[in-house]
Amino acid sequence: MDIFINNIISLLKDKIPLSVEEIEGLIEIPPDIKMGDYAFPCFAIAKQLRKDPKKVASELSQELVPPAQLSSLGGSDIIIRISAHGPYLNFYVSKNMLFKTVLKGIFSEGDSYGGSDLGKGKTVVIDYSSPNIAKHLAVHHLRSAVIGNAIYNLYKTLGYKCVGINHLGDWGTQFGQLIVAFKRWGSEFEIPSVEDYKKQRTAGETGLDINKLNELYVRFHKEVKSDNSLEDEARDWFRKLEKGSEEAREIWQYFKDISLEEFDRVYKRLGVKFDSYAGESFYNDMLGDTVNRIKDAGLSEISEDALIVNLDKYDMPPCILRKKDEASLYATRDICAAEYRKREYGFDKMIYVVGSEQRLHFKQFFKVLELMGYKWVDDCVHVDFGLIKFKHGKMSTREGKVILLEDLLEESCKIAKEIMEGKNPDLENKAEVANDVGIGAIIFSELSTKRVKDVLFDWDEVLNFDGETGPYVQYTHARLCSVLRKYGEKVTTDIDHDLLREDDELILVKRLEAFPLFILRAAKYYEPSILSKHLLDLCSTFNRYYQHHRILTDDAELRKARIMLVDSIRQVIKNGLSILGLKSPERM
Questions:
Q1: Count of H helices and E strands in the chain?
Q2: Cβ(78)–Cβ(97) under 8 Å?
Q3: Do domains 3-93 and 464-580 have the same CATH topology?
Q4: Which of 268, 347, 405, 504 is the most exposed place for a label (fewest CB within 10 A)?
């Protein structure tokens, strides 16, 4: 918590009926610098006191007195004035103290600026991406991966121990379908046998392209339309897989190995990492114990030959644990996984980054965990997000209608390279920078809007490098680096802060000072767009400042002060991009 907000809290905590955490969560930064440096809305306490919020703000402004000078901070006042503006209580801080504290803090903390030890000793488990194996990573897999990765980075920045889990969809009836397709039509698609694949792997050859598995999947769903017996055959093979059939297991492992090679390559390009790839299959041998615990708790019953937990009294459909054919379902495996993760990691919070289509599923299995007596279910959160929609209809893996994620990344990098060749043909490491910018454009486009909103996928929009985009933020970083190179001297904190008098300089420092607060809020609401928006505002303010004021001025002392400001902005943009999962090119 920074010194200014800390002082505001100290002033308010004994005067109003709110906790320290509640006060901190309400403190805002006014949109206009004339309205103060910080603002506290009085609606919440006015409601409790049954008073007009304007009157509450007015009374508090008269009652509060700024704290005495703190000699340890240079003997300057921290809060110098308090006034009421409608229902808001506005706080004005010492500009000299603001500039000195913020700029020196950024300089000394460097890459750590914005972080804290808030989560020290606490563990957060984050479940994200979680694609089905035996399929390509397509565009609709992008959102969970990059949102989850950003949330992981946010909590890690706040000092939490983070465990990122890719809960692979590597179990279920679909693998019975693939086994049937592989045995029936594998040779038609020139898919190597399991034995031939093992020989290829031993010889160091790449092996099977995952395209072939996608073709098999499409073929099965085409054939089943005219031959319903294929579904029964697929269910039979999945039963064999669950019971440990050696043949079924070998074919399934074949599919999984091929898939993980594909996934790892794409994740590496995106900069997305995981600490565990424990998918649905990992819990297969634990499912029996989980089901028995549910039975022993008197929660299960048989309905239409399926084992369920009846949730009628909670206005939800039943949670199906086992189907008529004894096959397990998503809910059973998710309940089992939650139990395991609590035992294994002792988490303080578990976050599931899964699309909004699965809201009912999470409500159901969270309710079952609650009925089983697990109080820690209150620490489980479903962080949902909107769908990616397409101009030309919905994607369907079954019909083979997908936009591959790797194709999107390739196209973005290609366009980035073309733009750079036009603007800066002599740029060194052009391919590397184009990759950083192209990938950054895709990631930022997903993280710059509220996650609950549906996204209309449009190539022209996604690959637009102008406006409020990742490349715009990256270019601002490169511009700042260019100014520092032209300066050519060592940045120093030994500056006269009183020389920074421009309104834009004040706004810039206030945005820098607020950076840790926006990280905290982005984590609290599981909303990376809060941080993205803050970076865009910072870049916009700097670029306006850059257009109207000389940084490398002839006045040596002013030049030193402005360079210190420039370096601080560069550092904060770099730190913010890193949290979001983007690189920060120094030249573009």
A1: 21, 12
A2: yes
A3: no
A4: 268
Cα–Cα distances in Å, from 189 out to 186, 209, 397, 448, 510?
5, 11, 18, 42, 61
| Nearest alpha-carbon partner for 531 in 150, 272, 158, 160 | 150
Q: Lowest-confidence range among 201-215, 489-503, 519-533? A: 201-215
Quick check: helix, strand or coil at residue 456?
strand
The average pLDDT across 254-272 equals 93
Q: Note the CATH architecture for domain 3-93.
A: 2-Layer Sandwich (3.30)
Residue 13 CA to residue 56 CA, distance in Å, equals 15
Distance CA 354, CA 367 (A): 17
Taking Cα atoms as reference points, which of 480, 584, 568 lies closest to residue 113? 568
Q: Which two tokens stand for residue 430?
A: 């052009």
Torsion sign (Cα): 56, 62, 63, 64: positive
Rounded to two decimals, the pTM is: 0.91
In degrees, rounded to 5, the angle at the alpha carbon of residue 442 between the alpha carbons of residues 359 and 566 is 115
- Four-residue CA torsion sign, 237, 239, 241, 245: negative
Superfamily of domain 464-580: Isoleucyl-tRNA Synthetase; Domain 1 (1.10.730.10)
Q: Which residues contact 6 (CB under 8 A, 6 or more apart)?
A: none
- Whether 27 and 40 have beta carbons less than 8 Å apart is answered as yes
**What does the pLDDT average to over 302-306?**
93
pLDDT of residue 140: 87
What percentage of residues in the chain have a pLDDT greater than 70?
Answer: 94
Quote the CA–CA distance of 588 and 583 in Å, as a whole number: 12
Q: What is the amino acid identity at position 247?
A: E
For residue 204, the tally of other CB atoms under 10 A from its CB is: 7
> What are 468-509's pLDDT values in tens digits?
899 999 999 999 999 999 999 999 999 999 999 999 999 999
- The answer to whether residues 136 and 247 touch, using CB atoms and an 8 Å cutoff, is no
Query: Which residues have C-beta within 8 Å of that of residue 484, sequence separation ≥ 6?
Result: 491, 563, 566, 567, 570
- The closest alpha carbon to 124, from 143, 146, 148, belongs to 148
Question: DSSP letters along 318-349, please?
Answer: -EEEE-TTS-B-HHHHHHHHHHHHHHHH--SE
Cα–Cα dist 190/237, whole Å: 22
Q: Which long-range contacts (CB under 8 A, 24 or more apart) does 94-101 make?
A: 95/497, 95/506, 96/497, 96/498, 97/73, 98/4, 98/37, 98/506, 98/509, 98/510, 98/513, 99/497, 99/500, 99/509, 100/74, 100/497, 101/2, 101/3, 101/4, 101/73, 101/513
Q: Determine the straight-line distance between the first and last CA of the chain, rounded to whole angstroms.
A: 35
Check residue 392 and give its pLDDT: 55
Domain borders along the chain are 3-93, 172-273, 405-461, 464-580
Locus of tokens 């370096």:
567
